[in-house]
## 1
Amino acid sequence: MGILEKMRLDGKKTFVTGGARGIGKRIAFALSEAGADVAIVDVDLEEAQKTAKEIAQANNNKTIAIKTNITSPDEVNEMIETILKEFGRLDAAFCNAGIGHGVPVEDDTLEDWTRVINVNLNGTFLTAQAAGRVMIKQGGGTIINTASMSAHITNVPQKECSYAASKAGVIAMSRNMAVEWADKNVRVNTISPGYMATEMTLNDPGLAPLISQWEELIPVHRMGKPEELEAIAVYLAGDMSSYTTGADFRIDGGYTCF
């Protein structure tokens, strides 16, 4: 069997949180193109259904949309129940949903700080934990959590204290999960994207003045494309990465080399 055949995900059952748009949508497409059935999990059901329909039309694999608030344990459990009912098992979980809130530390409120931590860290914990419980029972699986280069550096010129703290927490949490579940054949890794040229980023007028500054600081002098995360996501979701756990993959154009 050649290397491309080994990278296939035929028969794998997966989910992607925050899968309706942006990085999550691109990863969901990639998993499906590699042969996996995919559940598009998002708080925006209408957009999730559109994405699921697009993927289903492009590939022959099963794709479903599930509305879930990942900060709610009950909704996360319902999500898992729906996936098991539709797919029968869960082989790979891509815990990707997240938000940002760029304000100076002195102006941040506890409410806003808690909201970012709740979605980015607590939500990732709840979805990864729920996936891990299923995978332990069935004898194995792989979890990929979206962190960020912001966990490794301080962003400039924008102020991202709560976001950076939440993503650093995701990496530490994932490493601990990886060690605790290693003997249960459940692998946990993180992907740390740099600045990505998603539609949301490019269409946000508030970010337009910052993009040129970011690109000047990035060694390759451009933002990343969401599709440049596809290969690592497919690798981590499949059997080719069977010896890879507790790792963090920085896809940032060299930004964190400084």
## 2
Amino acid sequence: MKITKVNTYLVRPRWCFVEIQTDEGFTGWGEPVIEGKAQTVQSCVEEMTEYLLGKDPMRIEDLWSTLYRAGFYRGGPVLMSAIAGIDQALWDIKGKFYGAPVYELMGGTCRDKMRVYSWIGGDRPSDVARDALEKKAKGFSAIKMNATEELQMVDSYEKIDEVLERVAAIREAAGKHFGIAVDFHGRVHKPMAKILAKKLEEFDLMFIEEPVLCDNMESFRDVARACNIPIATGERLFSRWDFKRLLQGGYVDIIQPDLSHAGGITEVKKIAAMAEAYDVALAPHCPLGPIALTSCLQVDATSYNAFIQEQSIGIHYNTGASVLDYITNPEDFTFTDGFVELPKLPGIGVAVNKELVERENKTPHQWKNPVWRHEDGSIAEW
């Protein structure tokens, strides 16, 4: 079998899809994207096409190594996201060739279904208690929310109190054992992160996410010493070498590699195994589309340390189109009692609505994240 064509598509709300075709009629789909830089990643995929045409798509490890190692410069969000989408598409082809879900080709499952959580609130969260109760009524056992609006490096306790009031309202409304994850979103710097993490202890959180950016990886030590809440991070790390440094630090409890950013199924499966050796849990990052989600579920199915999966159905970013719009098998992504069944179709598990993808690609999106500023006019972390 040989790869004959590589097509890329920009689709709303903010995603990029790649389609790899072969001379034997098998087609694979992937989702290579950096949110806000979708066109850049698209160009990177197109630039890599010459390494793929005429090659055997079944040799995934060799093609992955070629894309990663044959270039003098490697790593980083753009290159690794391009590789991620290509890798997903190659696994999709391989699974379809053998007539089996990808997880069957990786040793089979270690679980029957996967726990999921749902987002509530938005960039500037409000009415979160009501939203949490709505999700609980739909069967979810856990939610995640953004913690804060913009925070300066040293900011007011008024903003800290606002966070505590929102989390307290969720805990009171949803009950003692409902899962609450609070995403600091990299908006909080170490001086305030230590304070906020310590004060959130009373609410028995499932985890806090990105209390500081991985740029300041050494600061996880200070946050971990300030509180007894599990710390999650990793969506802005892109390879096993990035995660090696994080795991060696010893202060993070949950890693969140993104299947569309961190080299795809091939790489994240290796990252997950590394984390298991450090007794660290896995909760893949996925505020993205259906191909990214089902790729996550393939890795979750085979990773003992996977404990919960993010998904973006209903997330505030999704305007104009949503996750299930782009597939013709939405029934395979029904959430029941806070769980989703493992993918059923051969390959990565989605039947893509190519007609809609092609129609969306005629008017490519140009999504960018907001640019925030503090009251003094300086740039704020979003």
